[in-house]
């Protein structure tokens, strides 16, 4: 006997992005030295997604940001954090931009001095 749940097609939770939005995110990521991947037809924790955009930062900790589109918003989530909804893609990218950048390494005055002598 078939279940009624199998008879009804399920609507994906995450919808596809418009092409213009994907191009915008790609260009934004390139300008900041980030890598972008588009994952198609994913199922995470029982929810279906047509497309997921994954942005990864550089540096030793390679932080990641996952972005998907719902019916009325753009949702972004970092690893281990709660998802946050935004009205547009630009808002999500601006909110998380600082988190994706590699941390600045500061050298001590002694290291700067030693580097100065080595450079010559």
Q: Trace the largest sheet across and list its strands.
A: 1-2-3-4-5
- State the helicity in percent bands: 25-40%
Which structural category do the helix and sheet elements fall into? Answer: alpha+beta
Q: Pick out the low-confidence regions.
A: 1-8
Plain-language structure description:
With 120 residues, the chain is α+β, with helices and mostly antiparallel strands. The chain is 33% helix and 28% strand. Strands 1-2-3-4-5 form a five-stranded antiparallel beta sheet. Strand 3 and strand 4 form a beta hairpin. The radius of gyration is 20 Å and the shape is elongated. It starts with a helix and ends with a helix.
Concise account of the structure shown:
With 120 residues, the chain is α+β, with helices and mostly antiparallel strands.
What attributes does this structure have?
120 residues, alpha+beta, disordered N terminus
């Amino acid at each position: 006997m078939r279940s009624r749940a199998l008879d009804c097609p399920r609507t994906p939770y995450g919808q596809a992005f418009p092409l213009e939005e994907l191009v915008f995110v790609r260009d934004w990521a390139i300008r900041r030295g980030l890598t972008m991947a588009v994952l198609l037809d994913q199922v995470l924790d029982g929810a279906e997604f047509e497309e997921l955009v994954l942005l990864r930062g550089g540096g030793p900790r390679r932080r990641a940001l996952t972005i998907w589109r719902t019916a009325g918003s753009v949702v972004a989530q970092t690893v281990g954090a709660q998802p946050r909804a935004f009205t547009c893609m630009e808002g999500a990218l601006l909110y998380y931009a600082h988190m994706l950048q590699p941390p600045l390494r500061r050298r001590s005055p002694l290291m700067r001095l030693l580097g100065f002598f080595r450079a010559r």
